[in-house]
Design brief:
This protein has a two-stranded antiparallel ribbon with strand order 1-2. The mean pLDDT is about 95. It contains three helices and two strands. The protein is of the alpha+beta class.
Length: about 60
């Protein structure tokens, strides 16, 4: 799948999830993703807590 900008990813994620951008920003952070899934757009929504961020970066961050 084609990559999108971070802003495009967040906008689409909020639309698909039925939440406002403000709600998203309260609980989530957008990080680069290199998971190699067919539908990956180069970004991931991750719970904005240090452990979740660390795990995502270890598994799917820049390689």
């Amino acid at each position: 799948m084609d990559t999108v900008t971070k802003d495009e990813f967040e906008k689409q994620y909020c639309k698909n999830s039925g939440m406002s951008k403000e709600e998203y920003d309260q609980h989530s952070i957008t990080l680069p993703c290199q998971c190699e899934a067919d539908d990956c757009q180069g970004w991931a929504s991750v719970t904005n807590k240090p452990l979740f961020i660390k795990i995502h970066n270890e598994l799917y961050g820049s390689r």
